[in-house]
Amino acid sequence: MLDLSGFEVYLKSQERSKNTNSCYIRDSKAFIEWYGSRTDCGLDKLIELDVIEYKKHLLSTSESVVTANRKIASINAFCKWLYESGTTPEEVSIKAVKNRDARQYKGLQERDLRRLRAEIHRNRNKMHICIIEILLGTGLRVSELCNIKLKDIDISERKGSIKVIGKGNVNRTLPLNKDVRKAIQEYLAVRPKDDSDFLLIGQRGALKRNAINLILEKYGKRVSVEVTPHSLRHTLGYKLVKEGTAITTIQQILGHDNIMTTSLYTVTTEQDMNNSLEALEW
């Protein structure tokens, strides 16, 4: 496989977050693997038709349009580096997917969420319960959840808060509702004794994002629900909109740099309109 150390240096010069750079590297490796499975040509022979085909591949396999667009951004950055480093004779790129389906930003249906949450609680694994309740109650990104340390949590009998280091090392402090406080306290009571400062501890130390993804995937399969940490983040965002929370408040909770990102939760779908009109009484 192509040595991507030069690409890593290139990404660091673009002043993106460490997590974004990691995603770009991971997405680029996936693209290289896909490209290699289709042709014997090297990347120096990469043409626009190849990346167009990859876009179609993403749309047929990605869990959401949002995920596909993130991967497209990764590939565009990778192709730009290939051109600027002299690997390819011309720069190729793909356009982001247009007309994003607003339902992608609504997360799980309420009935699916109830089934998923019940399945996790029924299993009685305190760490797994802690994970689902924190994600649902705060909307943290999975990288933010992995980085939570014991010192970041402050819980008393009737209130609690958690300090979060978000994108671009921007800090925010979020209040914890009673379900999240209870889940954290019950997990801490059985948390393995470990020298690690991190909240979530597995058999090999601090829990990584892949482990959290696998935990949610396991329970999702049991109840036939597709779930990721990000879909739970969307679930909270949309629920806050439905309950009339100010969009600026939602922006602060979710840690969005741009309020336009938050506004995607407010887009009305056909189902929203149907529900509203069906509920009318004169």
Layout of strands and helices, then pairs:
Blueprint: H1 5-12, H2 18-38, H3 48-61, H4 65-84, H5 110-123, H6 126-138, H7 142-146, E1 153-155, E2 160-165, E3 171-175, H8 178-190, E4 201-202, E5 205-206, H9 209-222, H10 229-242, H11 247-254, H12 259-263, H13 270-278
Antiparallel strand pairs: 1-2, 2-3, 4-5
Helix pairs in contact: 1-2, 2-4, 3-4, 6-8, 6-10
Strand order of the largest sheet: 1-2-3
- Spans of at least 5 consecutive residues whose pLDDT stays below 50 are none
Structural class: mainly alpha
Compute the average pLDDT. 88
CATH class of the largest domain: Mainly Alpha
CATH architecture of the largest domain: Orthogonal Bundle
Tell me what the structure shows.
By secondary structure, the chain is mostly helical. The protein folds into two domains: 5-100, Tyrosine recombinase, N-terminal domain (DNA polymerase, domain 1, Orthogonal Bundle); 105-268, Intergrase catalytic core (hpI Integrase, Chain A, Orthogonal Bundle), CATH 1.10.443.10. It has helices spanning 5-12, 18-38, 48-61, 65-84, 110-123, 126-138, 142-146, 178-190, 209-222, 229-242, 247-254, 259-263, 270-278; strands at residues 153-155, 160-165, 171-175, 201-202, 205-206. Helix 2 packs across helix 4 (65-84) and helix 3 (48-61) runs antiparallel to helix 4 (65-84). The longest helix has 21 residues, at 18-38. The model has no long low-confidence stretch (mean pLDDT 88).
Précis, in short:
By secondary structure, the protein is mainly α.
Give keywords:
mainly alpha; globular; DNA polymerase, domain 1; three-stranded antiparallel sheet; 282 residues; 2 domains; two-stranded antiparallel ribbon; 56% helix; hpI Integrase, Chain A
